[in-house]
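Replying to the earlier thread about multi-chain prediction with a worked example.

Input:
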Amino acid sequence: MDDRAEMLGPEKAGRETAFSRPFADTAPAVAPAVGRRRGRGWMERSEVRSLYLLAAFLVAAYALPFVIGIRYGTVRWDAEWLGYLGTVVLSGFLQGGVYAMFAVGLTMIFGVMRIINAAHGEWVMMGAYLTWAAFFYLGVDPLLSLVFTLPIAFVFGMVVQKLLLNAVVGQPELTGLLVTFGLGLTMIYVAELIFTTDFRTIPYAPHSVQITDSIAVSQNKLISFTMALAISVGVYFLLKLTRIGKAIRATALNAEVAMVCGVNVGLIYLITTGIAASLAVAGGALVSIQFGFNPETGIIYTLQAFTIIILGGRGHYLGALIGGFMLAVLESLVSLMIPNGTAMVELAAYGLLIAVLLIRPGGLMGVKEG
Amino acid sequence: MTQCVLRAVAALMALLVLVPAGRAEDRPKNEVLVGGAISQTGRFAEPAGRQVNAIKMWVDQVNSRGGLLGRKINLVLLDDKSDTQTAVKLYEKLITEDKVDVLLAPYSSAITEAVANINERYKMPFVAYGAASSPIWEKGRKYIFSIVAIAEDYQKGAVHLAKQIGVKRIAIIGEDSLFPRQSGIGAKQWADKLGLQVVLQENYPQKQTDFTALLQKIKAAGAEAIMSNSYFADAAAQVRQMRELNLYFKLFSGTVGPGLPQFAEQLGDSAEYILGFSQWEPLPDILKHPGMKEFIAEYEKRYGEKPNYHAGGTYGALQVTEAALKQAGSFDSQKLRDALASIETTTVFGRYKVNDKGMNDHEGLTFQILKGERRVVFPEQWAETKAKLPIPEWSKR
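Result:
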């Protein structure tokens, strides 16, 4: 049902919710359950079919670089070449972990409030600059600086929620998109005023880690991945095991029912955006020790996070993780094997995004019903 | 009521038209307005900043010796934020609103290419000290003149050195924009001429920061040397990631990045042995151009560092402009254009005499970063030292 509502656009989707609301009001426990059970048989068959279709498409998408590579002779199957392939896939995988971590923030805000945060990449960029400033002005180790950048990000997220997002919760998705888009632009120009548009880098862990004779990854990628994994697992358990996590999930499932059950939904919104901002800023810190950045690099990360959550399924925690790995590995394969492939990485990423939207708008895991 | 509103709007529009014109009229008679837009922030800020230094120094020097044709220079230097569209808007503004008398050039080939159309439209000339891509001069333009060596020759020295150390297969990579593409084309031509095989030639998007896969691909293609047609951020990322991935190449040559002091500073010893191209170096004893010693001393006094080629080329272009204005005898832009097209002069940067396309024939230098310093290694008549190639392996450094 939700999938179709998504495809029909915000107006129709709005009507759908308005229609179902009276049911929820009068018999919140029964009506949705009945509706869902009745719909399930029909949903399942088309869901399963679209999942197979998507899986088939993804296999084709991953096979394509190999096919083109064989056609142009960039693919060789000797041990040396497999070493390069291994390095690239491993690097992509490690990168994917970091992408996934900040995409989780985007998916949380969407899952809980149905707001698409177009400023997410700028939050990542903010994280990179906070880390850079701490490193150059205070001499703090980039990983250690997370100790105080994360609380700053959490408060920042809560302030954004209080001042901007609370006003657009429950409104059509376009409103939230526009508000956050404006926030993103504001942040870019503020960053340009403070830091100028110069490229910054943080020299950190410049050596390589030899995994096997032919596979090596960079130290800072490995460090970033480990941190991202630790933070992601932490957030996962926070959501699964703690009372706050349960309240967040309940709110995501149905804000009104959660409210009836005594959850302070307003507070949950604040905490959700706080966590999401912290994840983005942590992502920024981990990106900043690997790559150069300037105020305009945020947009790359917004687009990446979008692609990831659409691939994985909006509102899904695990989906974002899987999506992150899949996107980063595909990017690496395209770049490695297709002639002039580095220029085609973005084409591949957004081609994937469009294909997923066409084949299975809900992504791998499907959109969670709100 | 409607009429009243209409009248108010008309009055407002008249005001808008009159105000800028008024500003130009108000200018003191003994001043000359010299202006341009240059990338003071953004990805070009590093090279363009040194051009700004040279411009400011020249303006002060000219003013202290009585100005241009007896008029004091009033300098207007705007910031295009390294963005082509912004630059185009600012040049329109400089010419139509501020009504500058003498136009200064922007930085980078892409921006110069776009701005050159405005030069043509308003018939205002400049000497383009920030552009080295030959297609700019192959469109029959009459109001733009070059001073620096063309992009196609940026990798000339590096390809020659690769040949000398017995490299057979090279990779040519570069950012996907006008100037890097041109220097890539030139590198390919030189490689063909010298019999080196180009096993990979690839451009990457401007915002590329992760070169892991590209570097692996280069290695997989069997390249022994990389000719990277890049700016600062991408060249630095490539060298950094080569080390992080423990990928070894016998030779790595960047175009713009290694020439900037920031390159060696940010990369530390990873920058060692990297080749770069320089239009010019502050070496008066080797190059022997007139006025070099004084220029270098003055620049060093003001900015605490020796001028690099961006500063030298800009200063040279301004010397040419000054000489051309003297020959023209007025600030009339048509006369200035004709003077720039015909004049022959030698500046701190070298000889200036353009062909009928407006291009100057300038010979550049290839250097190597050795112990954090740039040392000229090509062409031989100007070489300070012999190139230390092939680069030692990462593990032996």
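Strands of chain A lie at 208-210, 216-218.

Feel free to reuse this layout for your own posts.
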